[in-house]
Design goal:
Blueprint lengths: L9 H23 L8 H10 L16 H12 L5 H27 L3 H13 L1 H5 L7 H20 L4 H15 L9 H15 L2 H32 L19 H5 L27 H9 L32 H13 L1 H24 L6 H18 L20 H21 L4 H26 L1
């Protein structure tokens, strides 16, 4: 299969610029409504404020690495002690908008049909969990841009492993990721596999030792950072290695059947219940897939909803405390429609992930491009990023109430999985050349269907 043309036309740039501009406005609207005050807010704010009092001795007894707290403290100390939260959120928003452009480029390299390109870009832009967690004060806001850059450098190396700059860029991106979220450790196995394949198949024998050594050094830096942090967590008895896990002999709270199979009670999720109002986090109440779907396509914690009247929205009287919100009747209606409307996209995401996973493995084994290189790279990296969370679910002491099913924990991977549904449709379309005239109306209808989903998203987020 030929690789996709990856350059943006003038029309593409106008369209993508419009998407990014609308996403920016929705994000700004969220910031004006304190959308950055999200999960574990008091915990994160406390560590941001106390970080300078323990220089060079960050406590790894906590569940997150230090990047958020170090950078947040710099903003607090050297930019504004009064508006530091909003400024951090604005920085996150800008970083994520930039990351979206990298994602657009990867989608263009993975999808040939313009209708599927445009609908995939719009869906990735306005997916509620991406929009919300592009501004929430938490390390999740780092993940999409860092993942996207790591994928871009990996793709360049997968196609041409002779670039020292790309090796350095990939190494630094993944290393920074390790200082933001431990889930970036899941990238190391697929990175090693993809880059070993590139060195083994795209270089002559005389070059393999040299570039293989450079590759080993590039991967050694993020690997060492991860291992050092794990050793420090072990030394201080941190929660990542401690009480979040089941004790030996205890039965699983979330079983594989809860993860892989739907439940009859999931039908209640079609009414777009709220996290707090309807307590959807209760143990065994819903399946993992059902919870993931409803939290991916709605504002499940109501973080972008209007604050109550007693909370001031005046810029000079900004609050720094979390509070509960209520959905308007319109927001509830739009979110209910979103849950039901996007069942098609969740089904496509699951099918597309399996489809692209199979063809990516086949491409590597047979050394034939059954998928575009970009699709192979993002599929492998997304699977790697997702795996630390997926394979820990059955071993966690409290996966439901602790929110280990929330999409923010696997944000870049889940965004890629949704995109792979579009990649699958494009791949099938390109393979059936004779049927393309008959299939074009269906592609147009699907594009319109996806745009309606995006309008629903914007409707209840803005």
């Amino acid at each position: 299969m030929n690789q996709r043309a990856d350059s943006f036309s003038a029309r593409d740039r106008m369209y993508l610029g419009l998407l990014a501009a609308v996403a920016c406005m929705v994000g700004l609207r969220g910031i004006s409504r304190y959308g950055y005050i999200g999960q574990d807010f008091l915990y994160h704010r406390g560590l941001i404020l106390t970080f300078p009092y323990t220089p060079w001795s960050f406590s790894y007894s906590q569940t997150s690495p230090p990047a958020l707290y170090y950078l947040g403290n710099l903003v607090h100390n050297y930019v504004s002690a009064k508006y530091y939260l909003a400024i951090i959120a604005l920085g996150f928003l800008a970083f994520n908008i930039a990351g979206l452009w990298v994602i657009y480029g990867l989608l263009w390299k993975s999808i040939a049909n313009w209708q599927l390109r445009y609908s995939a870009a719009a869906f990735a832009t306005f997916l509620p969990f991406r929009v919300i967690h592009s501004i929430v004060i938490a390390a999740d806001a780092f993940t999409l841009p860092v993942f996207a850059l790591a994928a871009l450098y990996t793709l360049r190396l997968f196609e041409n492993p002779r670039s020292v700059r790309s090796w350095a860029g990939m190494s630094l991106c993944v290393s920074f990721g390790m200082m933001c979220k431990y889930t970036f450790s899941g990238l190391l196995p697929p990175l090693a596999l993809l880059l070993a394949f590139a060195i083994g198949t795209r270089l002559g024998r005389g070059e393999r030792l040299r570039w293989g050594s450079i590759g080993a050094l590039a991967l050694a830096l993020p690997s060492a950072l991860f291992l050092l942090q794990m050793r420090e967590i072990e030394r201080v008895g941190g929660s990542v290695r401690g009480d979040v896990w089941l004790q030996k002999g205890e039965p699983s709270v979330m079983r594989w059947s809860d993860i892989l199979l739907l439940k009859q009670s999931d039908l209640k999720l079609l009414s777009a219940p709220g996290y707090f109002r309807d307590k959807i986090y209760e143990v065994g109440k819903h399946s993992y897939l059902g919870l993931l779907h409803v939290s991916a396509v709605t504002d499940v914690m109501d973080l972008f909803q209007a604050p109550p009247k007693e909370v001031s929205t005046d810029w000079l009287q900004k609050t720094r405390k979390p509070f509960f919100r209520e959905r308007t009747a319109l927001s509830q209606t739009l979110e209910t429609w979103s849950v039901r409307w996007c069942l098609v996209h969740s089904a496509l995401a699951l099918a597309g992930t399996l489809f692209c996973g199979f063809l990516s493995g086949k491409s590597l084994l047979l050394r034939r491009p059954f998928l575009p290189n970009a699709a192979i790279v993002i599929t492998a990296l997304a699977a790697g990023y997702y795996s630390p969370i997926l394979f820990s679910l059955t071993r966690l002491a409290d996966p439901y109430a602790a929110g280990f099913w929330l999409p923010r924990l696997v944000l870049p991977a889940l965004l890629v999985f949704f995109s792979l549904g579009f990649v699958m449709l494009d791949s099938l379309y390109q393979r059936h050349v004779r049927l393309q005239p008959a299939l074009k109306p269906f592609l147009g209808a699907f594009t319109g269907y996806t745009m309606v989903a995006c309008l629903l998203f914007v409707g209840f987020l803005a």
